[in-house]
Specification:
Elements lengths: L4 E10 L4 E3 H5 L6 H8 L3 E3 L7 H16 L8 E5 L10 H9 L5 E4 L5 H14 L6 E7 L10 H4 L5 E10 L4 E9 L7 E2 L11 H5 L6 E2 L1 H23 L8 E4 L4 H11 L10 H4 L6 H11 L8 E8 L3 E8 L25
Parallel strand pairs: 4-5, 4-6, 11-12
Antiparallel strand pairs: 1-7, 2-3, 6-7, 8-13, 9-10, 12-13
The protein binds coenzyme A.
Length: 351
């Protein structure tokens, strides 16, 4: 039984300083700035510095989120981390983050690719709804660039590193996650896969010689899935919320490819002004993409109390995860801190 609504009362993000532009990539693989922009909308992505870990990025985003929420790490009841590119298989990044923060609460990791943050958010919401926990940190983080084959133009131009985090706390009125739509079609999993290093294909010289320690993707199949599931899951989550598109103030889709977003916008006949896009600056940061976009939307003044926001994601698995979130807290003026460097792009035309 629902005991309490949850609200997002803290938020933070971190992206590495180093920018890798399409022009840099032109020197590394057979590609061009024009091709990448036309097919994906991506202009640059961030790459972690040597020695900078996913844990470091998660820590920076989490500290900001706690500061915005006015909480100390020891106030937390639970930490949920979403990542598919952990620093270690064992221990989980959630535990290393818990230690780095100086938190004393339970912590676990969700590994559903780019949908991980929304899966984590919906999971965190359940603990608050049942009254079990009151202060939950949900983090999406990916240090994905070490898992990319920098000679494979099909994948290396698409992804980037980063982290985003939110704090969930109880709300007296309808706030936070009002509805969700989660799904998985494991039959399609082979289309986005990192084959080597796990139990099925343990680390070996041969595995590395075969390049199986890199992310592989069937771009066309993932594109087909994404363009189908983005509108489908948007409609499903709106149905679950008892809302129509007109009730939604802002849609934050997973930032994988501006063309995928554009096709969904056209199909659903959404006002493009309601759709947040920053894939041009960061590429696909997987589980970090939605929380980074949410934080930038806040920083740009695009999120106000009572706004209803649809978060819609798709990714490895293949999975999808969407949530309608009602915004609760006012955004303090200091949260406009990076607004100046944020340049929203128009959704590029579908080819
Ligand atoms: C990867 C993707 C951008 C490719 O775009 P596309 O328009 O579908 O391109 P195609 O796959 O049809 O390939 C067209 C050609 O471009 C080439 N190409 C691929 N990447 C290239 C690059 N970076 N630069 C130049 N050419 C490239 C292909 O090799 C192909 O050449 P060919 O016709 O000689 O075989 C697109 O399929 C995509 O975005 N898929 C979804 C990816 C995704 O979102 N993944 C993460 C999900 S969470």
């Amino acid at each position: 039984m629902l005991q309490s609504y949850s609200q997002i009362s803290g938020w933070g993000k971190y992206v590495p300083e180093k920018r890798l532009t399409n022009f840099d990539l032109e020197k590394m693989v057979d590609t061009s700035h024009e091709w990448i922009v036309q097919r994906t909308g991506i202009e640059e992505r961030r790459v972690a510095a040597k020695g900078e870990t996913g844990g470091d990025m998660a820590l920076a985003a989490s500290r900001q989120a706690l500061e915005t929420a006015g909480l100390k790490p020891t106030d937390l009841d639970l930490i949920i981390v979403a990542t598919s590119t952990p620093d270690y298989f064992v221990p989980a990044l959630s535990s290393t983050l818990q230690a780095a923060l100086g938190a004393t609460c339970p912590a676990f990791t969700v590994m559903t690719g780019c949908t991980g943050f929304v899966y984590g958010l919906v999971t965190g919401h359940q603990f608050i709804a049942t009254g079990a926990f009151k202060r939950i940190l949900v983090v999406g983080v990916e240090l994905i660039t070490p898992f990319l084959d920098w000679e494979d133009r099909n994948t290396c131009v698409l992804f980037g590193d980063g982290a985003g985090a939110v704090v969930l706390t109880p709300s007296p009125g309808p706030r936070g996650v009002l509805a969700f739509d989660l799904g998985s079609n494991g039959e399609l999993g082979h289309n986005l896969i990192l084959e080597g290093g796990g139990g099925a294909n343990p680390m070996s010289h041969q595995m590395i010689d075969n390049g199986q320690h890199y992310l592989k993707m069937n771009g066309r199949e993932v594109f087909k899935f994404a363009t189908r599931i983005l509108p489908q899951s948007t409609q499903a989550v709106l149905n679950n919320a008892g809302m129509g598109l007109d009730d939604i103030d802002l849609i934050i889709p997973h930032q994988a490819n501006a063309r995928i977003i554009d096709l969904a916008v056209r199909y659903l006949k959404i006002d493009p002004k309601k759709v947040f896009v920053n894939v041009n600056k960061y590429g696909n940061t997987s589980a970090a993409s939605i929380p980074i976009a949410l934080v930038e939307a806040i920083e740009q003044g695009r999120v106000k109390p009572d706004d209803k926001i649809a978060l819609v994601s798709f990714g490895a698995g293949l999975t999808w995860a969407s949530a309608v979130v009602q915004w609760g807290v006012a955004v303090p003026p200091s949260n406009g801190r990076v607004a100046a460097e944020t340049v929203p792009v128009e959704v590029v035309a579908a080819s």
